[in-house]
Amino acid sequence: MEANRYLRPATLEEAHQILLQDPKNVLLGGGLWLKKSTSFANALVDLGALGLDTIKDLGDVVEVGAMVSLRDFELSPLLKNIQGGILIEAVSQIMGVAFRNSATIGGSVAGRFPFSDIITPLLALETKLVFYPHKEMTLNDFLSFKGRLSDILTHIVIKKSQGPSFFKKVKTTALDFAVVNVAIANIDGKYRIAIGSRPSVASLASKSMEVVNNAKNLSNELINKAAELASEELLYASTGAASAEYRKALAKAYVKRGLEEVSK
Amino acid sequence: MKVNFNLNGRYVSYDITPGEYLADTLRSHSVLSVKKACDEAACGACTVLLDGRPILSCSFLSARVEGRNVTTVEALQDEVDEISDFFADEGADQCGFCNTGLALTILALRKELNNPTDEDIKHFVAGNLCRCSGYQSQFKAIKKYLEAHK
Fold this sequence. Notes:
The structure holds two protein chains of two kinds. Chain A is built from twelve helices and twelve strands. Chain A has helices at 12-21, 34-37, 70-75, 77-80, 86-91, 97-102, 105-110, 119-124, 139-144, 206-213, 220-233, 244-262; strands at residues 2-7, 25-28, 40-46, 55-57, 61-65, 127-132, 135-138, 152-159, 165-170, 180-187, 190-196, 203-204. Chain A has a five-stranded antiparallel β-sheet with strand order 4-5-8-6-7. In chain A, helix 10 (206-213) runs antiparallel to helix 11. Chain A is globular and about 60 Å long. By secondary structure, chain B is α+β, with helices and mostly antiparallel strands. Chain B is built from five helices and five strands. Chain B has helices at residues 22-28, 77-89, 99-112, 118-125, 136-148; strands at 2-7, 10-15, 47-50, 53-56, 69-71. Chain B has a five-stranded mixed β-sheet with strand order 2-1-5-3-4, with helices on one face. Classes of the chains: A alpha+beta, B alpha+beta. At the A-B interface, strand 1, helix 2, strand 3 and helix 6 of A face strand 4 and helix 4 of B.
């Protein structure tokens, strides 16, 4: 790719100043999708010297630095048991080990990639994002935000929730992008249902969640209704990989199976 | 700009452009074991070891290896020859284009995993595509190689 400069700031303040100087200054995560997403950058800004590559236990939550590789995320004992291991299950299905050694969790989230297999389960959990200089927002708000943020994603904060979960990535070949992916978590008796790669970026199926969360018991009838709603309330589109109708049918089937599994 | 790093046990300082990728830098300095195939981080042919861990050099910016250790097959002739023998015994070699990247992944697998299961092996090498072998013979060769090193 074409770039005029490569910069490796020593502080977040310096990185932020560089970012503000020119909209064509690009922050680097792992940089693996850079070729596809950016043809020219005035400056490539490497965040590798800022100490953002650690995973910390902060009591009720785990704080993951934006520059943690997907492979280190996958191998972290701190993340292994959160919500039945849903995050590890999802991240381990992203390409191969060499890819995951290079890609970062911050790049994966900040990129808001529609095909992401890690955004969907993070959304099903109660994930919070921390930005420099001083912004915090939920992942759900970040995904809904339109436009370009001039802040730097520094940490992803994941609640150490426990309970059953479900993740399904539907793909045509082992290393392919998801045709659709579905993540469901039951956190303290409340269900969160996220559906991604429709092919737009993951969203919560709010109406479906409302139905299941307002019920005393999840009957088969209610699960069918929630699955139907999840397939109707979100936008599905056709691509070369799959038609909108197929994606809708998959979402319905896997929300149903997921709810059956996590409500056992 | 310059990038300074340890390449196969020797310190090098190369002129690069800011947006240059590692596979291009290495190949332009005659490190030709590093293959370019998909050129979009999907096939594993460009795998090299960065500080001992496999990465995809076709999509990894050269500037990011500043001060780090890059290892390619050129520095691991004996180890790779041994893997090649296991591959030959199982008939796992055909065109050989993917072999260098796969060999480095196998060496990383051996270092990283103790007593891997069949699933662990398949999972670890899943990112190295081969369009000739159908994978079964490669899998058998990898298992025998790992068993020989228990």
